[in-house]
Design goal:
By secondary structure, the protein is α+β, with helices and mostly antiparallel strands. It folds into two domains: about 140 residues, Alpha-Beta Complex (Aspartate Aminotransferase, domain 1); about 170 residues, Protein Transport Mog1p, Chain A (3-Layer(aba) Sandwich), CATH 3.40.1000. The strands form three sheets. Strands 8-9-10-14-13-12-11 form a seven-stranded antiparallel sheet, with helices on both faces. Strands 1-2-3-4-6-5 form a six-stranded antiparallel sheet, with helices on one face. A two-stranded antiparallel sheet has the order 7-15. It is elongated and about 80 Å long.
Amino acid sequence: MTAAYYQDFDAEEKQICESLHALISAKLPSAENKIWHAHPVWFLDGNPIVGFSKQKKGIQLMFWSGADFDEPGLVVRAGKFKDAAICYQNSSQIDQEMLVRCLEKSVTIQWDYKNIVKRKGQLLRLFQAVLLAIMLLSFRSYNLPTDFQALLTRAQMTFDAPPKLVMQQCIENRQMNYEYALKHPKKKFEIRYAIRPLDIQIEKHKEWEKNKKPGDISIHPNKLYNPMLQATLLNISGGQLPDINAFGKAAVAKEFNADWGATAFASLDKEFGQDYKYCLVVALHKDNVADAYIFYLANDRNVILKNMEPAFHALRFK
């Protein structure tokens, strides 16, 4: 795991690395991530694209073809290569909008480092990178079950399939039904997705409002997201209610385009958990649209935390 690279860094350095790791993995879901020359690097078709490393002046983020990105925030080194970099001393310095632009450009603008030895040091521009970009940036909701795609449409959500995971058959249970699941091919780690569109509930509530009698009480579906999360947690844990941690309103809007979101760690009951002991639940809500739940399952909480990053923003509202 490339995350092991920064586990022993001090708190600020580790926070920078975790933020960079999560954003790169989310924006380049098809890239191969591995330790190369002693630090984490992401590759597309064997060509190095972006990586970060600890330097004396901070955590350095480097784009191998960044010299052609036309981004003032990147420092271009003199020489025959096309790399450019930026250094961070604390996580607040990370400009996410600028970083997203650079990651998008890193797909369409590539120089061929993969074959530089074969060409005896000659560096050539990869014009086929534009075609590769179209393929990679169109990597959305591919090969998904029809029912799950229909729910995505009703819930006005997008789904970018996380890399290196395989589809898993959903298990019917009385505690929490879900519509799609992915599993790590080697590790005991699984992700389950449940989407609950609100369109029918809202129409029923509107009809009820028209015909209600004095004293009748009904709660609008937009006000039920927290009680529904509590009920879900009680169900899957066999009656235990763990602490619920809500996202900041600005953060959940920026990261998921949602109006509300929260997380909770739960110990699992056998029916929903099957062979898993623990689950991190992420709940999302968008007014008048849908509620959604993502379940990260493993037998060790650290396994969840180490493997969830590439999938964390896979499901979000449009």
